[in-house]
Structures are given as structure tokens and as C-alpha cells.
């Protein structure tokens, strides 16, 4: 068995199960509206969702979606503009795309149908600062919150209070003149709350300015008087009720992985799709579970999902949570233990680098090197030196992390 290839195949199967090409066909309206279909989207899956949707939509179609740089589909989509922008910190391309998307939303009339195609990553990619908030300050706040290790729920709470499109504001704009609305989501948040995916451009959320300001204070950010005023003044309009469909989640990806592995004869231990926490510490915890399986008959595969974090890491290319998780697991084992780890982000990008994650076996790196890399948050350099990076390129979906620990496999290569 070529273990690395086997686990890579399992990962790619799981990703495909959560992609738009698998989950979106047959879910869209099967008729044409009297007016136009306006497609508005954001996130790492947005271009692929738009491509799949356009192949099924009838009648006149106009729209714009924004995705991360490199996550486009490489071809023009008739009637739908695809903009590539910066992530995780917003850039001018994302700001300009938001203006174009808001303009299309404002044009929607009572005979039109608006489709929102929303996926993870959209919080950064669709950037329209609240009135009175400078774009540069919103960039700085986003960067600060990411570095602070704040949970994504808290980060998105702040983001939607700093935005003219998040927290249902885009849907309120699009539905102001009676257009029919539909939302389609690919979820990258633990718990799959639609209001948290991309900070919910089309989903109503509570207006809680004091809570948002409290998150900023707890993170150590000094909030200016102008920003405080902008947050308090940014009360959203009412969002028209409409159909919201969640197409794919991390649990769907894990289910596909579990089925494939069990079919191949693995004893699968599913640790769930709702994991949170510091990546290296979760890795240590999972190592203890894996240790109990050493010496037992058969081959065992621990699988898990969710979204882990790295506190204190920079955004200059040091390694993401999946590499930190893998290093955390292996630092608990001896070089001759029959343990291997595959951990990767379903979007194809772990942190800010060019890799989805990594594959590494006990013995590939000495414990001292793993500990040093974790302490400095420099796991990328270590895994690259070991030829242990997993590079898939953008997958054009995003349902969080997919992690595997293999124990006692047969005839490893």
C-alpha cells in the first residue's frame, strides 16, 4: 500500500463530495423568472458554484461573484463576472467587487430572481466597510483578529457589524423592491449556522454592537471613536424571508471519507466534524487516542473535521493549522511507532501558503525539530524540507479541515 497516495485519494474524494459539481445540480429553480436571474456570490467556492449554476439556469442571467485569487474556474461564465480578490485580509479587488455586487442587488426588481451563492472565505472577499469606517482600518482589524486566534464566530460577529453587506444587508438590498430570493450555501463553519458562513450576506443576524465592541476589546484592539460610531449606526434593514439551502458541510465530506475507508477495510474511528481548538493541542489529544490502537489487530483510521486555529502566528507564510496539528500528533510518538498523519484544508490552502496541508509518518522528523517548529509557528519550512507537503491547488470548495491518523497499516511504502 502506498499510504500517502491512499490517504490523498480519500481526501480528494471527500472534497469532491462537498463540491458544487456534486451538490448543486438539481437544486436550482427549474423555470425562468419573468425578469432576470441575478447571481451574486462570494467565497472560495463561488466561481465553481456560478459555473455549475449557469449551466442550469434558464432565461436572462446577470451577476457577479468574488472568489480568492487562484480560485476561479479558468473560463468565462456567460453573464456572470468572476472577480478574484485577497484572502484572509481584504484587498481593493474585494472592495471593488462588493461595489459591483451591491449595484446589481439594487437593480433587482419585482420580476427578478436573485440567487446568492455563498461559501467560506466570503467574509474577507466581499468587503464593503460600514459608512464612516475607513477601508484601511477594516483591513487592520481583520488582520489583528486573525492573529489573535479569536474563534471564527467572534471574528464574523465583528465583521458583520463593520460591513454594509454582511448580516443580511445584501439580501435586504436585493429584496427591497420585491425580487424573489434564494440562498445556496457551502458551509465552512462548525455547526453550519447559515448566518456565520461568509458572515451571512443574505442571512439576517442579531444587531449586537456592544458584543462586537467587546470582542475587539478582548482581542486587544484599540477601537477609534469613528469606528465605534460606525458600528452603532450600522443597523441592518429587514431581510425578506426566503429559501436557504445548505448544499455541503464538513460532515458530508467526512461521511464520504468514512465510507471509502471502510470499504477498503479500515476500522474507522470518527471523531466528528465539530472540532475546535488550538491545532497543536488537539493534535496531542488525538495522539493519545491513536496510541490506544497501536498493537490492536487490523488497520485503523482516525478521522476528524471542524476548524482548528493557531494563536500567535503571522500571515507571512509560516504554516497553517493542519501542519501544526500533524506536528502536534507526531511529537507524541517514537520514530518506530506505526503512525502516520494526513491533515489538509478542504479548500486546498492551509494558512497562507501553497499547500493544502501535509502527510508525515513517525520517524520522518525528530521530536526536537517538531517541537522547535511548533514553538516558532514555522511548520511549513519543516514539512517542505521533509517533502511532506500536500499540494492540490485550489479545490473550489470549502468545508473546513479533513484530518486522518493511520495506525498499523499494512506494508507501508
Number of helices: 15
Beta-strand percentage? 15-25%
Order of helices and strands: HHEHEEHEHHHHEHHEHEHEHEEHHEE
| Envelope shape | globular
CATH architecture of the largest domain: 3-Layer(aba) Sandwich
Protein described:
The protein is an alpha/beta fold and 413 residues long. The chain folds into two domains: 169 residues, glycerate kinase, domain 1 (3-Layer(aba) Sandwich); 229 residues, Rossmann fold (3-Layer(aba) Sandwich), CATH 3.40.50. It has 15 helices and twelve strands. Helix 1 packs across helix 11 and helix 7 packs across helix 9. The N and C termini lie close together (6 Å).
List its salient traits.
Rossmann fold; six-stranded mixed sheet; 413 residues; single chain; 2 domains; glycerate kinase, domain 1; 12 strands
Architecture blueprint of SSEs:
Blueprint: H1 3-17, H2 20-23, E1 37-42, H3 46-56, E2 61-68, E3 80-85, H4 92-107, E4 113-119, H5 122-125, H6 135-148, H7 152-161, H8 169-174, E5 180-186, H9 209-219, H10 225-232, E6 243-248, H11 250-263, E7 267-270, H12 279-291, E8 300-304, H13 321-330, E9 339-345, E10 357-361, H14 367-376, H15 379-385, E11 389-390, E12 401-407
Parallel strand pairs: 1-2, 1-4, 2-3, 4-5, 5-6, 7-8
Antiparallel strand pairs: 8-12, 9-10, 9-12, 10-11
Helix pairs in contact: 1-11, 7-9, 12-13, 13-14, 14-15
Amino acid at each position: 500500500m502506498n499510504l500517502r497516495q491512499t490517504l490523498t485519494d480519500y481526501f480528494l474524494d471527500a472534497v469532491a463530495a462537498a463540491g458544487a459539481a456534486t451538490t448543486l445540480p438539481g437544486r436550482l429553480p427549474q423555470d425562468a423568472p419573468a425578469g432576470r436571474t441575478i447571481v451574486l456570490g462570494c467565497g472560495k467556492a463561488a466561481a465553481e458554484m456560478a459555473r455549475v449554476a449557469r449551466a442550469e439556469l434558464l432565461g436572462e442571467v446577470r451577476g457577479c461573484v468574488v472568489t480568492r485569487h487562484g480560485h476561479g474556474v479558468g473560463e468565462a461564465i456567460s453573464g456572470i463576472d468572476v472577480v478574484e480578490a485577497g484572502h484572509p485580509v481584504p484587498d481593493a479587488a474585494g472592495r471593488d467587487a462588493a461595489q459591483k455586487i451591491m449595484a446589481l442587488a439594487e437593480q433587482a426588481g419585482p420580476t427578478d430572481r436573485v440567487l446568492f451563492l455563498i461559501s467560506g472565505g466570503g467574509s474577507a472577499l466581499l468587503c464593503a466597510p460600514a459608512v464612516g469606517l475607513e477601508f484601511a482600518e477594516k483591513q487592520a482589524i481583520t488582520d489583528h483578529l486573525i492573529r489573535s486566534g479569536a474563534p471564527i464566530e467572534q471574528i464574523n460577529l465583528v465583521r458583520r457589524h463593520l460591513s454594509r453587506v454582511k448580516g443580511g444587508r445584501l439580501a435586504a438590498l436585493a429584496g427591497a423592491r420585491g425580487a424573489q430570493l434564494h440562498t445556496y450555501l457551502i458551509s465552512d463553519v462548525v455547526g453550519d449556522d447559515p448566518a456565520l458562513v461568509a458572515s451571512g450576506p443574505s442571512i439576517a443576524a442579531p444587531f449586537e454592537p456592544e458584543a462586537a465592541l467587546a470582542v475587539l476589546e478582548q482581542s486587544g484592539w484599540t477601537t477609534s471613536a469613528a469606528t465605534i460610531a460606525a458600528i452603532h449606526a450600522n443597523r441592518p434593514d429587514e431581510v425578506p424571508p426566503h429559501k436557504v439551502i445548505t448544499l455541503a458541510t464538513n460532515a458530508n465530506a467526512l461521511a464520504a471519507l468514512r465510507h471509502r475507508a471502510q470499504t477498503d477495510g479500515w476500522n474507522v474511528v470518527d471523531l466528528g466534524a465539530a472540532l475546535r481548538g488550538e491545532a497543536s493541542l488537539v493534535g496531542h489529544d488525538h495522539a493519545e487516542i491513536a496510541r490506544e490502537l497501536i498493537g490492536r489487530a487490523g488497520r485503523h483510521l482516525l478521522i476528524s473535521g471542524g476548524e482548528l486555529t493557531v494563536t500567535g502566528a503571522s500571515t507571512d507564510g509560516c504554516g497553517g493549522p493542519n501542519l501544526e496539528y500533524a506536528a502536534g500528533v507526531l511529537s507524541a510518538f517514537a520514530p518506530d511507532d506505526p503512525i502516520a498523519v494526513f491533515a489538509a484544508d478542504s479548500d486546498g490552502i492551509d494558512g497562507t501558503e501553497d499547500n493544502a496541508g501535509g502527510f508525515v509518518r513517525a520517524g520522518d522528523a525528530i521530536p526536537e525539530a517538531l517541537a522547535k517548529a511548533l514553538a516558532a509557528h514555522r511548520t511549513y519550512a519543516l514539512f517542505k524540507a521533509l517533502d511532506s507537503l500536500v499540494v492540490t491547488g485550489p479545490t473550489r470548495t470549502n468545508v473546513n479541515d479533513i484530518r486522518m491518523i493511520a495506525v498499523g497499516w499494512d506494508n507501508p511504502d
